[in-house]
Amino acid sequence: MNKAITTALQKIENLNPSNAGKDFLLSWDKSADDLLSILAIAEILRMLHQEGKSFRVFDSGLAVSIFRDKSTRTRFSFSSAAAALGLSVAELDEEKSQISHGETVRETANMISFMTEVIGIRDDMFLGQGHSYMREVASAVTEGHQQGILHRRPTLVNLQCDLDHPTQSLSDLLMLKNHFGSLENLRGKKIAMSWAYSPSYGKPLSVPQGIIGLMTRFGMEVALAHPPGYELFEDVTKMASQQAKESGGSFTTVENMEQAFEDAHVVYPKSWAPYAVMEKRTELLREGDAEGLLELEKACLAQNATHISWECNEDRMKATRGGNALYMHCLPADISRVSCKAGEVSHGVFEKYRLDTYTQASYKPFIIAAMIFASKIDHPARVLHKLISRDRGNCVDFCG
Amino acid sequence: MNKAITTALQKIENLNPSNAGKDFLLSWDKSADDLLSILAIAEILRMLHQEGKSFRVFDSGLAVSIFRDKSTRTRFSFSSAAAALGLSVAELDEEKSQISHGETVRETANMISFMTEVIGIRDDMFLGQGHSYMREVASAVTEGHQQGILHRRPTLVNLQCDLDHPTQSLSDLLMLKNHFGSLENLRGKKIAMSWAYSPSYGKPLSVPQGIIGLMTRFGMEVALAHPPGYELFEDVTKMASQQAKESGGSFTTVENMEQAFEDAHVVYPKSWAPYAVMEKRTELLREGDAEGLLELEKACLAQNATHISWECNEDRMKATRGGNALYMHCLPADISRVSCKAGEVSHGVFEKYRLDTYTQASYKPFIIAAMIFASKIDHPARVLHKLISRDRGNCVDFCG
Amino acid sequence: MNKAITTALQKIENLNPSNAGKDFLLSWDKSADDLLSILAIAEILRMLHQEGKSFRVFDSGLAVSIFRDKSTRTRFSFSSAAAALGLSVAELDEEKSQISHGETVRETANMISFMTEVIGIRDDMFLGQGHSYMREVASAVTEGHQQGILHRRPTLVNLQCDLDHPTQSLSDLLMLKNHFGSLENLRGKKIAMSWAYSPSYGKPLSVPQGIIGLMTRFGMEVALAHPPGYELFEDVTKMASQQAKESGGSFTTVENMEQAFEDAHVVYPKSWAPYAVMEKRTELLREGDAEGLLELEKACLAQNATHISWECNEDRMKATRGGNALYMHCLPADISRVSCKAGEVSHGVFEKYRLDTYTQASYKPFIIAAMIFASKIDHPARVLHKLISRDRGNCVDFCG
After folding, report:
1. Could you read off the pLDDT of C260-275 as tens digits, one per residue?
2. Quick one: how far is CA A315 from the chain centroid?
3. How many CB atoms lie within 10 A of CB A147?
4. What is the DSSP string of A58-126?
5. Block means of pLDDT (10 residues each) for chain B, length 400 residues?
6. A350 and A203, same structural domain?
């Protein structure tokens, strides 16, 4: 057996996670062992895939996805993960169904779950709604299961909400682990989570929140930078501070990109909308005020435009550790003079790190597969052992 | 082996069904043994699922779905059933294809069938069309198969047409069987299939027709209630009368909800459109008369509004057997002061039976799986034996 | 073992193809052995399917499809092929993603490929774009694989571009092989690839180009007919001439349908747009000139209308070899007085050959499956042997 697999497997055996039967909604609701277990499972599944081995664990079954916002990376990551585990994806297209809010979420949640193993949800557009929606679905399937209506309770995976984007942040963490050699090596490494200019409007806050909510648990020096008015959700920044203290790292907020980048090992420059705008938008949408929304968009773009200088470029990268911090982005990035006139990152910087951003994205299917695996499998180490020792090629051509 | 499974299996061995190779379009085209066999198969598959066992019978293959109307429950039930049996779902999206009526239905039917095991169709919008469309598809694939173009003839499952909604009515029958303990116990039980007010327009007649067309075969006392002008298709009501006579039950039509509910063991209050409106609508749609359609909708809603008192509420429920008849609904229900100002059912009544309606819906994936199973498997009892004795966990975690 | 299977298998063993790891973009980029191998694999898979045997080779995995134009036949053929091989289809819906041209094609290509075995693409609308797009995707996944980002490089299958429609032309070739008994028998047979009138606008040139680009390699007498102004891409007609010389066949261009049909064994009358119109259209679309596009459509339809006499009808069929040449069409055909007032083919001729056109279409799922098989399996003969000898029923009912 591959030595790296053996090592990862031993790691899992020494953990005491409680992922089985549990949803993955927010990374900060998970224990360290929960997260370490998922990371190790993801790494093992990734190595099996690399060797052309199958890690299919289901004979059949459904994985339901609900996308309330556009998605390429996460959509395909979820489909890949489900297919690799042996599940068929069925997407709940709310336009082809008759879904309304309020009373019927709990009904729909049960109607799609009679033979469903996992439900993946993206609902990131409206502040105070995405996470609530997921909790509503979660509590509905819990009721359905407790009442004997659902033979098994499907587990939920948050594919991005208004608070967190855990499939992204855990993929990013795996990227950092591999970049620096180990999770232990992340201690004391500085990561700059910085706002960056984009000519677009309404980008969710969940990526920066996910990053500061996760990386502060691993002893990193997390520097958050944004213009005034672009604050993140206060509960999350407070929590990040607390976690940094406990982990021996730090969490600081600074007011410009330069300060954040100073001596940073990692930079993560990314645009997001002002919290106040997102709140106002949610309100206007609820009222169906189309005119108000147009005005808000205009005002927000004008506000953004006053911060057009927040671009990650060669000059700013020079100030990072050794001048070559790792540049990260969840993609797609707004690249100056490529996808827009002025954007989050200069063409030169993006090109230099383009393949790194692909690698960063490449962890996501395995993170999602591991989240599903961990939530559905009571004895992950035992089953992984079984998968490794059955040594089944994913294609019959690879079989003996 | 689970005793309930053994009993169900014995039942199948004593039947003489002819489902193999046949479509399931209308419940009244099926023999008693056909129906009993499908019910028993559904129960066995359901028990296997409950125990976490796989009932996958296909190594690969396609299940095609054609939805010409919105659907959540039936769509996910079909997807679940197909996935559990080992088939991949491919949906024919008529907007992404180039489908027209008439000449080309038979062409399309063959084009989607070269490697297809089953085709599920919902076409319930237009009187005189849904069932005809299914027959056209059926005859096209029969021709394709007879001419050697299709290696195997895909079998059709009616996922709701203008005449019948058999995956619903058979699920409902299974619900009743479990509620009352056995099919035999249904004899003499009164079911009230009643029209109910809804502020919507154009709801199909297929659910009430499916219910009276099926339950009259099992010795039930079926009472149909609706305002004048909301008659069902005459062929179906005549057939229901005849069947009731033969089964030792009864079929009566009454003019108000109260009379139907009187001493009923089961109530099924549900809105549908007047037959004449549905006919007119089909005509206007064919002519593309948008203005006429708007006027018709207005007129129909006004007509409905004169019957706003047809609500299933606490008062009316008091008159049922022991004051606690089983309330049934195919969902989603129009709930007064929840999903609309005034609707089919009061909030209180719906809440009391909400979980029962979920249970009712929970049979559908297994009914659909059983319909597919019965149509594709020559020796259902033998194959079920095989599935039971192979004892394969649906998840590798459950395996020995 | 079925004798026909043994024969086909021996054929493969004597070939020296280099399909493994390669995309299938243009038939003329493939060697004779590449094509012969794919044809033989398709025939074996088809025979296995006919006998109810499974030819599933993947335990799990993704097949991604990208349709930039409407499709029924090819869409279902791709889904069927993927499902039969054990892959789950995930469709890249560009409206549900955030895809733009240029810079991001290479990004998207990698994002959808982390666990993907094959990517099928239809992009046939714009001259000079479809094939370029496929090459861009191909080079992006090559880069991703070489850089270690993709564990395996997904192979591409062209589901129709602006230049070629190889899944169609290879299906057609298999149809001809079976119609005439062998590929050898195609030598000296005359096929008339003729333009035909259609009241529609903007039909791609890829089918006629695919036909003349493939059939000239098998010693056929290929006659291309079209009105002036409806020339095909010059590179392809030149290549067809050259290939005809090398194969001992011929390639001629004539100016009317009669001449092409004269003594033809096979006729393939089909509409396509004038090259100049397609060029202009691509330009106008790029400029977003809606008015210009409307004018172009009008002008093109007017131009088409001057050639309304180009219909394949009984009179013209009389001039073919023995009066009963095989009529071919990729479907759907524009049938006079059925799907349009005047079209590509008379009702009588189409009816006579309707089932033949279905048979012609029936090869496509197996051709696509064979293309995927050949590109993913290093040792096709060895794996086919394995599939045949494992003798696994596709349905458990067929198993011993």
Report:
1. 999 999 999 999 998 8
2. 29
3. 14
4. BSS-EEEEEESS--SHHHHHHHHHHHHHTPEEEE--TTTTT--SGGGHHHHHHHT-TTEEEEEEE--SS
5. 87 95 98 98 97 96 92 93 98 69 77 97 88 96 98 97 97 98 98 96 93 98 97 96 98 97 98 89 87 92 95 98 97 93 96 97 98 96 93 77
6. yes
Q: Half-sphere exposure (CA, 13 Å, Cβ side) for A378?
A: 5
Check whether residue B42 and residue B96 sit in a common domain: yes
* C227 and C293 belong to one structural domain: yes
- Residues B173, B310 within the same domain: yes
Tokens at C187, concatenated = 């030598």
pTM: 0.97
Tokens read off for A251: 């969490």
Which pLDDT belongs to residue C231?
95
Tell me, what CATH number does A199's domain have? Answer: 3.40.50.1370
Determine contact, residues B268/B194, Cβ cutoff 8 Å: yes
CB pairs < 8 Å spanning A and C: 117
Chain position carrying tokens 């396609």: B62
CB contact under 8 A, C376 and A395: yes
Residues C97 and C66 in one domain: yes
Q: Crossing angle for the helix pair B364-376 and B347-362, nearest 10 degrees?
A: 30
Residue type, A89: V
Asked if C78 and C131 sit in the same domain, the reply is yes
Q: Report the alpha-carbon distance of residue B1 to residue A393 in Å, rounded.
A: 34
Which residues of C have a CB under 8 Å from any CB of A? 56-62, 64, 87-88, 90, 92, 96-100, 102-104, 107-108, 110-112, 114-116, 143-144, 147-152, 376-379, 382-383, 386-387
Six token digits for residue A197: 């200019």
Helix (H) or strand (E) run with residue C309 in it: none
The Cα–Cα gap between B245 and B216 comes to 8
Task: Provide the residue range defining the domain that includes B126.
Answer: 3-163+365-398
Asked if A103's CB is within 8 angstroms of B335's CB, the reply is yes
Bridge partners of residue B121, in order along the sequence = B66, B158
Of the candidates B116, B134, B154, B165, the one whose C-alpha atom is nearest the C-alpha of residue B364 is: B165
| A130 plus A246 within the same structural domain | no
How many Cβ atoms sit within 10 Å of the Cβ of residue C293?
16
ipTM attached to this prediction: 0.95
Out of B57, B149, B377, the one facing C358 most closely (by C-beta) is B149
Q: A369 and A328 in one domain? A: no
Name the DSSP letter for residue A154.
P
Q: Give the number of domains in chain A.
A: 2
Measured in residues, chain B has a length of 400
Q: Where are the alpha helices (DSSP H) in chain B?
A: 3-13, 32-50, 73-85, 103-111, 130-146, 166-180, 206-215, 234-247, 257-261, 275-287, 290-305, 314-318, 347-362, 364-376, 380-390
Is residue B59 within 8 A of residue B86, CB to CB? The reply is: yes
Q: Which residues pair with B335 in a beta bridge?
A: B345
Q: Do A198 and A304 contact (CB within 8 A), yes or no?
A: yes
Amino acid present at A203: K
